[in-house]
Amino acid sequence: MGSIWTGDRVSLRGIEPEDWRAFQHIDADTSDMRAVDVIHPPRSAEGYRRWAAEQAVKEPVGDEFQLAVHSRADDVLVGALSTTGTDQRAGRFGYGIGIGREHQRRGYATEAVVLLLRYMFGERRYHKCSVGVHAFNEASLALHRALGFEEEGRLREHEFFAGRHHDVVVLGMTTDEFADRHGFGAVAESGVD
């Protein structure tokens, strides 16, 4: 028996209270924090413990949720991903992903995104996924292009940090484009006749 949330390298799971140390460690690298979102003020160990405990019991709001990305080989949390901007009427959503620096370049982000997209397109009936990537983040742009995302535009001087404004590249993928490249797996694999 398999799980839609498990790949060869990673599994996606809920955040557990004991994950607080891993998130604290990931947030310690300012460039990682900026690549994922923005730089936040330092948080105490107790703040991380409380945040992880809250995340562990937090119910999804519609189709917006956050998941831990867990390395199957190393049995450690390597990052997180979350859905954003879900719009069931229009059939679109976005997501964000962050993998800790020491776990990058191992295929974790690629597999985690494919697992998420397979769920959102194949189980939740969304039609399109859009993501915004900082224009300077070449690794993330390469990841999304390799996954099959198409560049749809650029938001000029859209985000401010490090003393100036930066462009954001908008990329998108439809369910048909995903299916052509990655597929949804055989129905028999899920136990459905």
Automatic annotation (TrEMBL):
Superkingdom of origin: Bacteria
Residues passing through the membrane, by range: none
Family annotation (InterPro entries): Acyl_CoA_acyltransferase (IPR016181), GNAT_dom (IPR000182), Ribosomal_N-acetyltransferase (IPR051908)
Domain named N-acetyltransferase: residues: 10-176
GO MF assignments: protein N-terminal-serine acetyltransferase activity; protein-N-terminal-alanine acetyltransferase activity
A GO CC annotation given for this chain: cytoplasm
Entry keyword annotation includes Transferase: yes
Parts forming coiled coils: none
Pfam families per record: Acetyltransf_3
Keywords from the UniProt entry: Transferase
PANTHER family (alphabetical): ACETYLTRANSFERASE, RIBOSOMAL-PROTEIN-SERINE ACETYLTRANSFERASE
Protein name: Protein N-acetyltransferase, RimJ/RimL family
Source species of the chain: Saccharopolyspora kobensis
